[in-house]
Amino acid sequence: xxxxxxxxxxxxxxxxxxxxxxxxxxxEAKRVFERDFLVRLLKxxxxxxxxxxKLSGRNRTEFYKILQRHGISPAMFKNSRDE
Length: 83
What we know:
By secondary structure, the chain is an all-alpha fold.
């Protein structure tokens, strides 16, 4: 589930804490969904922020802020299109 060589502690804790059928708090579920959505967009566009922002219905500045909030770098996806 991690997009980086080092698995973030929060992700590891989430995996260990959430068993099958368990529910997580809504705020956490939204963060997980948002992060997964961003990763999918960046993979689809090969890390192109302008295209990803457009597909998400956000402007580039806002999109960059959301990426920063999740610790996601578009450069991580530069050659990942169609994988």
